[in-house]
Request: fold
Amino acid sequence: MTSSTAPSLAAEGAATRQVTVRLDDRVRLLSAVLAATNYPDKSQERRRHGTHAHARATRKWLIDFMSHPAVHAAQVLLDQGMPLNALFSYALRLSFPALEADLPQPRWIPPRWNEYLRHFYEQTRLAEWWESESPHWQTAVRHLRETFASVDLHAFLEPFVGRLVETLVFMPNICYPTDQTLGLQIGGELVVIMPPPIAWGDSAPWPYKDDPALAYRSALAEYGAMLMDAYLQQHADLVATLSERPLPIIEEQYAAKYPSWHRQFIGVFVASITALFLEDKVSTLEARSFTQYMQKVEQLTGLPTAVSVMRRYLEDYRSGRYTSFAEFMPKLPNLLKVGKTISAL
Reply:
C-alpha cells in the first residue's frame, strides 16, 4: 500500500470539513524503524502496557535488521533525547517512496538518513508486510472515521481561534509509539498520530471504537494546542500585557511543571475546551471523569472554574457580544479570579 496524498481543502469540501482520517506510509516506516530500536523496551520501562498484535509482529518481522544504518541513526537520535515529534515531522516532509527531501535538512539529521530509510524500506519488504497486515490497519481507519463522522471540530474550535484554514488530519498508529500521541504541523495540515487506547497492565489495547472520547481528547489536545499557540503569536501585544500577571487558577504544583505563562494558558485552554466538548457531545460522566483526572493527576485544580468561564464566553460569542476570543481575553483574569473565590466559599 502506498502513502496517501494529502487531499486539498477543495477536495475535502468546504461544507463538511470533517477530520481527515488516513494512513501515511512515511509514518508507518518510521514506526517500523522505532520497532527495531530499544524504544519499545524503554516505553515499557516508563509504563507497563500491552501492545497491538501488529506492533509485536513487526518487531519479529524486522529481527534481522536491528543493526541497519537507518535504525542505528534513529537510535542515536533517541539516545540524544530527540523528541518523537521532530522525527515524525522530518519523515512527513520526505517524498514517498523515494524519500527525498525537497527542503534543506535540519542540521540534527544524520547524514544520508533519508537514503538509509529508503534502503530499510526496500530491504525489509515493508510494503509486503503492510499488505499482509492490511485488515488491522483498515479496521483502525474505519473505527476512527466513524468516530469523527458525527462531530464538527472545525465549528467547535473556530469561536476560539478564528476560521480554520488548516486541514485537520488524524492518523491511527498500531505500531510505535504505543504510549504517546503526537501532534505535528506539516505545511497546511495539523496532524495527530494516535496509538490505540491503552488497557490495563499487559492487556492488549482496546479497539479505537471502544473509546471514542479518548480520540476526541487527543484531537482537541493536539489541534487545540497548535492552534492556540499560533493565535497567541498573532496577538503578541495582548499576550504581553496579560502575561504580566499569573493566571489566578494556577497552583504551585502545576506551575512547577509548566513554568511559562504561555504554556500554562495553552494548558488551561485545551483542558477547558476538552471538558466542554465532552459535556456537550459525549456525556456528563465522561466530562466529569476527564475533569477529575486533570485535577488529581495533572494538578490543574482550578479546571472547573476555567470551564465555566469558557462556557460563558461561548454563550456570549453566540449571542453576538464578542466577535473573537481576543476581545474576551482581557476579561479572563478577573473572571477566573472571581470564579476561584466563589468555588472556595
Observations:
- Residues 1-15 have pLDDT under 50 and may be disordered.
- DSSP finds 18 helices and four strands in the chain.
- The beta strands are 20-21, 167-172, 182-186, 189-194.
- The longest helix spans residues 212-234.
